[in-house]
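Recap quiz, item 2
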Amino acid sequence: MTSAPRRRPPARRPRAPADRPTVPPIGTIAVDGLAKPHPAIGLGLWGLGRWKPADEDRTRATIGRAWERGLRWFDTAEVYGGGRSERLLGEALLKFPAGTEEAFVVTKVSWEHLRPSQVRASLVSSLERLARRSVDLYLVHAPDARVPLADTMGALEALREEGKVGAIGVSNFSVEELEEASRHLAKARIVVNQIEYNLFNREDGDAVGDYCRRHGILVEAYSPLARGLLHGRYLDGRRVPAEVERFVHNLFEPNRRAEVLARARRLRDLAREHDVPLASIALHWLAARGAAPLVGMSRPEQVDSNLAAWSARPSDRVLAEAEAIARGDRA
Ligand SMILES: NC(=O)c1ccc[n+]([C@@H]2O[C@H](COP(=O)([O-])OP(=O)(O)OC[C@H]3O[C@@H](n4cnc5c(N)ncnc54)[C@H](OP(=O)(O)O)[C@@H]3O)[C@@H](O)[C@H]2O)c1
């Protein structure tokens, strides 16, 4: 009796660990002259000035969880915590296997250091704190009308030529400033403009974002959750902390606050109706515009919750409805 040929078990495909979702890139930017994928969602390490020892421990744990969950884009700046943010990030990345190579590290030169010798000194100090030889992307944090952009951009280009900076970007730049800055780059291009952009704050994002899209500049959207409001915070009577009020003053000004909260509650209802987290709507509304959300997360649970929100993609119809609600077109 011949026995039936034994079926070979199907080759097992290596599976990504269930708790490590892949975060596909949102687009590419030119880094070191090569098209490099730009991650779709990032971890912002500003921390809103909270840099006490307990905050630092939480930040370390948050970076650890972000790494574990597959996030690779880390955003910091020389001004965040007076350099503490960069130092913490540098120390954390050294501990992860391939942390230095795999991470996409973005830092920024302060608006107070835009003269050429200052730009160089700032980068050297940032690299020392980050424990790296180069950063993937170096941004001008904000323009300073007292310093000609020609001087700053020239200095950045020299640093890129030396390999200390993979690519050059800017932050909080208007269309005019982008045009002016681009004119002063000989070989490099501006690859990113990091701006405040969310469902409620669109003044800059819409116009500047259009220009960026047409000129191949990727928009990194900061404050994508309107400091937690688009996560549902402050909708059940929770007090808005003074530092949040100060930073997002345009949302919480007395003449606007009640209306903004009412619209945010309508957005929350919409999210419930479609069984997605409110943050999914906030993050994917940006992504649908080609803008990469840069989310501030101050504790590990927020990484989990934001990645869960990211993994639920609301339909285009829901995103359009959300936009109408945020704009005030829906009673
Ligand atoms: N280029 C610039 O000028 C500029 C300016 C501002 C920010 N940025 C960058 O953009 C990053 C993000 O901006 P952002 O921090 O202003 O805004 P955001 O992402 O809109 O808000 C972040 C805050 O929302 C809360 N939050 C986040 N996830 C949450 C969750 N799952 N559940 C409940 N609350 C949650 C947290 O508040 P708590 O921490 O209070 O829990 C967090 O600090 C910054 O870290 C920084 O890297 C750049």
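Residues 1-21 have pLDDT under 50 and may be disordered.
The two ends are 79 Å apart (CA to CA).
End of item.
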